[in-house]
Amino acid sequence: MPYLKALQWQRSLLTERINNPNLEDVLILLEHPPVYTLGQGANLEFLKFDLDKSTYDVHRVERGGEVTYHCPGQLVGYPILNLQHYRQDLHWYLRQLEEVLIRVLANYELQGERIPGFTGVWLEGRKVAAIGIKVSRWITMHGFSLNVCPDMTGFESIVPCGIADKSVGSLAEWIPGIKPQEVRFCVARCFAEVFDVELVDSQPEGFVLSP
């Protein structure tokens, strides 16, 4: 799905839930065409190309964090959650998202790790999952990306997440042949476990979450 189409979808879902906090939560899981996104305070020094002359698709958005890269083969998750139904604590929410991804890796007998002081999930010292969120009136948007089997060359044009001394990796390096579609269902199941919700598959890209 084109990045801007997914962004508008998120913004629409968030606005609906600000107006009606009783609407059910949603988890969107999809892939994007190649695109770079910058968090609202992101440093342009982490781009290795001239933004004014760029042939790349680049968007600055309202999430936190630095520059990241999305492309086919990377599974992107956008939870639209009302944290008033869970816990009104952003650090807790970030750790929960990491826990979802750590459980996904464990499903494939891989040991995902956190690194103190950083947000995301690492595998044998390489970052395989990035997280960047936005919360308005305790309703979340943006989310996480998990490198399943992307073309990793796109990361060479940036300093991913502004972390220069740690490389990025993908699950395909440990599990040749793995595809986002199979990981999607594992992510959805682990998400339901961590957030203690029931999943209802509502359309090709999304799930409705019921407490």
From TrEMBL:
Native source organism of the sequence: Trichormus variabilis SAG 1403-4b
Miscellaneous note of the record: In the reaction, the free carboxyl group of octanoic acid is attached via an amide linkage to the epsilon-amino group of a specific lysine residue of lipoyl domains of lipoate-dependent enzymes.
GO annotation, cellular component aspect: cytoplasm
Entry-linked PROSITE patterns: BPL_LPL_CATALYTIC, LIPB
Main EC class the enzyme belongs to: transferase
Keywords: Acyltransferase, Cytoplasm, Transferase
Entry coiled-coil feature ranges: none
Binding site for substrate: 63-70, 130-132, 143-145
Name of the molecule in the record: Octanoyltransferase
Record-annotated active site: 161
Domain BPL/LPL catalytic residues, every copy: 21-199
Molecular-function GO terms, alphabetical: lipoyl(octanoyl) transferase activity
Function, as annotated: Catalyzes the transfer of endogenously produced octanoic acid from octanoyl-acyl-carrier-protein onto the lipoyl domains of lipoate-dependent enzymes. Lipoyl-ACP can also act as a substrate although octanoyl-ACP is likely to be the physiological substrate.
